[in-house]
Specification:
InterPro entries: At1g61320/At1g61330-like, F-box-like_dom_sf, F-box_dom, FBD, LRR_dom_sf, LRR_FXL15/At3g58940/PEG3-like. By secondary structure, the protein is of the alpha/beta class. It contains 11 helices and 18 strands. It has a 14-stranded parallel sheet with strand order 1-2-3-5-7-8-10-12-13-14-15-16-17-18. The chain has a two-stranded parallel ribbon with strand order 4-6. Strands 9-11 form a two-stranded parallel ribbon. The longest helix has 18 residues.
């Protein structure tokens, strides 16, 4: 008796169901489905999402050769695709052809793109974005790398855009400000190594997450009441030193952080702390950071009186802080005013009443660092965990920490070395 032919249930699935399965696989594996049958030969080219990354190519394939393979993939898509393309991500380290990029962006805008992500190009010369990109009404996520961004006169905003990331992009301050304010639904903004920035003005009523790692001279965080997470690393413009003013009032600290009423997590780097310290420093901010739960300070200079005074102003303004993370900038220099300042804080009647976790990395064992540790231990009544990581082969002696006055009875101390 002849065996009954088994039905191909997968091939007979509705395309929307099959598409939702295939988009979760690496594109290289999806392309291999073309070997299943003639019916499957070009099925993969009609996906609604395409992610072209290093997983699509052999590890040994040279960077300059990859673009030819990427071009071949995209031409197959252009020739055979039906329906919308909602997501396109290009994150394969390669040397792109600018004319190809312009052609593809034009094609994707016609296809109703919602997520466009261009990352990790290997080139120096920036490519100019085609103006058609700024007329995508359905765009939700935009990540751009290595381009020149100029808004066309017809640009009226991205009404649906929720996430914007710019990396190694050439854009002037006024254009960036207008772009941010023209995205009313924007929730996440990331700016990395931006060219030609002078003054950053961040104004957006819906913005919740902000990360900046770039050169700039000044910053204003205005009219962004929902900001919950802010991470700022400031790089000096062209290596120039910062204009310094002891008498500036209000200080940068009040002007920049004083409007972050809803902030929950704050991450600041060494040079930006120095920037905030410029001017007359208040004991605490006029309006406390009542929602701040996590404070992460990177490369703190314990040999700078102004820097230490600045982050103490933030600490005193954060009555509900639960987690404090500090990495210490390398310096063996001891500044007597810093030691005296930290000793004086022990006399003040203020406590870190909600602080539960403290992690300090990169200690050198200087007197200001040890005075700071003593202060934290004596003023943190609910502290549960203190982790101290010291440079060099020797750890901070646990006996030294054990004999310091401690406000918490449930504290566990961990001392490590790098």
């Amino acid at each position: 008796m002849e065996k009954p032919v088994k039905s191909d249930r997968i091939s007979n699935l509705p395309w929307d169901v099959l598409n939702s399965i295939l988009v979760h696989l690496p594109l290289r594996d999806v392309a291999r489905t073309s070997l299943l049958s003639r019916k499957w030969r070009y099925k993969w080219t009609s996906l609604s999402q395409f992610v072209i990354d290093d997983k699509c190519f052999p590890y040994s394939l040279p960077d300059k050769t990859r673009w030819g393979e990427i071009r071949r993939i995209f031409h197959l898509v252009q020739s055979n695709h039906n329906g919308p393309i909602e997501k396109f991500k290009l994150a394969a380290y390669c040397y792109p052809d600018h004319s190809d990029l312009n052609e593809w962006i034009n094609y994707l805008t016609v296809k109703g793109i919602k997520e466009l992500i261009l990352q990790d190009f290997s080139f120096i010369r920036r490519f100019k974005l085609p103006s058609c990109l700024f007329s995508c009404p359905r765009l939700i996520c935009l990540e751009l790398h290595g381009c020149i961004l100029k808004l066309p006169p017809t640009f009226r905003g991205f009404n649906c855009l929720k996430s914007l990331q710019l990396a190694q992009v050439s854009i002037i301050s006024e254009t960036l400000e207008y772009l941010i304010t023209s995205c009313p639904a924007l929730e996440r903004l990331t700016l990395l190594n931006i060219d030609h920035l002078a003054i950053l003005r961040i104004r957006n009523q819906n913005l919740k997450y902000l990360k900046i790692d770039s050169e700039f001279e000044d910053i204003f965080l205005q009219s962004s009441p929902l900001l919950a997470s802010v991470d700022i690393r400031m790089i000096p413009v062209d290596g120039r030193s910062m204009p310094w003013s002891e008498e500036r009032d209000p200080s940068n600290l009040i002007r920049v952080l004083g409007c972050l009423y809803g902030i929950k997590k704050l991450t600041l780097s060494s040079y930006f702390i120095k920037f905030l310290a410029n001017g007359i420093l208040p004991v605490r901010l006029p309006r406390p950071l009542l929602n701040l739960l996590v404070l992460d300070l990177k490369e703190v200079r314990f040999n700078s009186f102004k820097d230490v005074a600045a982050f103490f102003s933030i600490l005193r303004s954060s009555p509900n802080l639960e987690e404090l993370i500090i990495s210490v900038g390398h310096s063996n220099e001891v500044i007597r005013p810093v030691v005296d300042f930290l000793k004086d804080q022990c006399l003040y009647n203020f406590f870190f009443s909600q602080l539960k976790v403290v992690r300090i990395r990169g200690l050198c064992g200087t007197r200001p660092e040890l005075e700071f540790l003593k202060l934290i231990l004596a003023h943190s009544p609910v502290l549960e965990a203190l982790t101290v990581v010291k440079y060099g082969s020797e750890r901070v002696p646990e006996s030294l920490l054990l004999h310091v006055e401690r406000a918490s009875e449930k504290l566990k101390i961990t001392s490590l070395s790098l």
